[in-house]
């Protein structure tokens, strides 16, 4: 598939048009950003590792009949994806209290929640991605009630799949963010699923295996991304 004009360049990815108007090439950069783009960094092979992790997780979800925009991996840092009309809502699923949640509600960091929490944020950097609920989404036309119902069902299903997937690798999926879009009449998961958009902790040691190492200057972000990829693809479990 030939890469054509650049369609959009984000903080960690670039989208290119292709000769097929229904398909895009998503390229992962070596860049990292945090706190609404105010903190920036990069490391060698980050794009390659992110592409490999996203490819593995999208393929895994497809095996469980969870629809995603993923079509196939192309090069080291690129995947072919369906072109979507994005729903401007970030969907966060939380299993363990940390960061914003722990602070806002004064819950002990690391507490396993009695039930998973699904939260919605309006995707708008200028507004700082404010939290919304389903009713805001319908009222302001970001998504229909039916789409929000489906989004919530798919997010819960992904959470159930990920909990056991990561548990078998000795890891806890603390929280993660999904984005959804429409491809014709189909509602599918878009964007990426990588350690940039998840929190993953080692079950035994509590070691953080995600972008928090960069956010909070914990060091070794390059090593944990590689270790996470190795554990994800390990066939022993
Ligand atoms: P939070 O605790 O900062 O709200 O983040 C919850 C999860 O969602 C965490 O795994 C990181 C991910 N996330 C993103 O991928 N993009 C974002 O813009 C935000 C706010 C969170």
What low-confidence regions span 5 or more consecutive residues with pLDDT below 50?
none
How many helices? The count is 6
Strand content: 35-45%
Helicity range: 25-40%
Task: Summarize the structure in words.
By secondary structure, the chain is α+β, with helices and mostly antiparallel strands. The protein has two domains: 6-82, 2-Layer Sandwich (Phosphorylase Kinase, domain 1); 85-220, 2-Layer Sandwich (D-amino Acid Aminotransferase, Chain A, domain 1), CATH 3.30.470.20. The chain is 30% helix and 35% strand. It contains six helices and 13 strands. Strands 8, 9, 10, 11, 12 and 13 form a six-stranded antiparallel sheet that branches. A five-stranded antiparallel sheet has the order 1-2-3-7-6. Strands 4-5 form a two-stranded antiparallel sheet. Strand 6 (70-73) and strand 7 (78-82) form a beta hairpin. The radius of gyration is 17 Å and the shape is globular. The two termini are 34 Å apart. 34% of the residues are buried. Bound molecules: thymidine-5'-phosphate (TMP). The site of thymidine-5'-phosphate (TMP) has 11 residues, from strand 8, helix 2, strand 11 and strand 13.
């Amino acid at each position: 598939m030939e890469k054509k004009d650049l369609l959009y360049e984000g903080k960690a990815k670039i989208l290119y048009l292709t000769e097929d108007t229904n398909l895009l090439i998503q390229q992962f950069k070596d860049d990292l950003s945090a706190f609404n783009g105010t903190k920036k960094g990069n490391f060698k092979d980050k794009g390659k590792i992110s592409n490999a992790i996203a490819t593995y997780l999208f393929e895994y979800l497809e095996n469980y009949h969870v629809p995603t925009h993923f079509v196939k991996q192309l090069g080291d840092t690129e995947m072919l994806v369906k072109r979507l009309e994005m729903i401007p809502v970030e969907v966060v699923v939380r299993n363990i209290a940390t960061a914003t949640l722990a602070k806002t509600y004064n819950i002990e960091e690391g507490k396993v929640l009695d039930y998973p929490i699904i939260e919605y944020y309006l995707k708008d950097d200028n507004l700082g991605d404010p939290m919304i609920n389903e009713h805001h989404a319908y009222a302001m036309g970001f998504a229909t009630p039916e789409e929000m119902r489906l989004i919530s069902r798919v997010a819960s299903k992904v959470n159930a799949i990920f909990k056991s997937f990561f548990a078998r690798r000795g890891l806890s999926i603390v929280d993660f963010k999904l984005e959804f879009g429409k491809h014709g009449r189909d509602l599918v998961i878009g964007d990426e699923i990588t350690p940039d958009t998840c929190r993953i902790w080692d079950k035994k040691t509590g070691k953080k295996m995600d972008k928090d190492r960069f956010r909070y200057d914990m060091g070794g972000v390059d090593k944990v991304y590689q270790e996470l990829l190795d554990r994800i693809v390990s066939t022993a479990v």
